[in-house]
Amino acid sequence: MSVQQHLARIGELLARPLTGSDTYHLVILRESRDFAPPNDDWDELMRTSEEFERELIDLAAALDARWGPHTTVSMENYVHAFMDPDADDLPPFFLYLCESGYFGDLLYWRAGDRVLAASVGHEDKEEPVALFAGVTGSREGFPA
């Protein structure tokens, strides 16, 4: 898919209402094949991950042009909290990302009264690589 197609899907995502228990929405913009045996080619997985990261960079440039420079938040603290059974509750958006195995750095923008985020996720070595975008009405968990 092209950056323009991703932007169109993100526009649809931003237009979706956030009501009741729907405090966020997430959409997979692009997903690779899985890498489960017998398709567990490590070199191809690395090439695919790099390709998706380059696509994220291109998408970020287009979103920067619209919403201003992005900010990056590391998922590291959220992952540690997610793995710690004694930790406090995570903000719902970050909890969902951790449950989905999306532990990569998150790029985000303030889009009106919402936060728009994008990243590349890869739950484990056998799962597909995913380029995704999410939107939330809560700024909880995002640095000020």
Structure in a nutshell:
This protein is of the alpha+beta class and 144 residues long.
Would you mind describing this structure in some detail?
The chain has helices at about 5-15, 40-65, 75-85, 90-100, and strands at about 25-30, 70-75, 105-110, 115-120, 130-135. The chain has about 140 residues and is an alpha+beta fold. Strands 1-5-4-3-2 form a five-stranded antiparallel β-sheet, with helices on one face. The longest helix has 26 residues, at about 40-65. The chain is globular, with a radius of gyration of 15 Å. The mean pLDDT is about 90.
Low-confidence stretches: none
Structural class: alpha+beta
What's the number of extended β-strand segments? Answer: 5
Would you tell me the overall average pLDDT?
90
What oligomerization state is this entry in?
A: single chain
What is the terminal-to-terminal distance?
Answer: 32 Å
DSSP helix count? 4
Which percent bin holds the helix content?
25-40%
* Strand composition percent: 15-25%
**CA-atom Rg in angstroms:** 15 Å
Shape: globular
Sheet with the most strands, sense and barrel status:
5 strands, antiparallel
The secondary-structure element order is HEHEHHEEE
| Strand neighbour order, sheet with most strands | 1-5-4-3-2
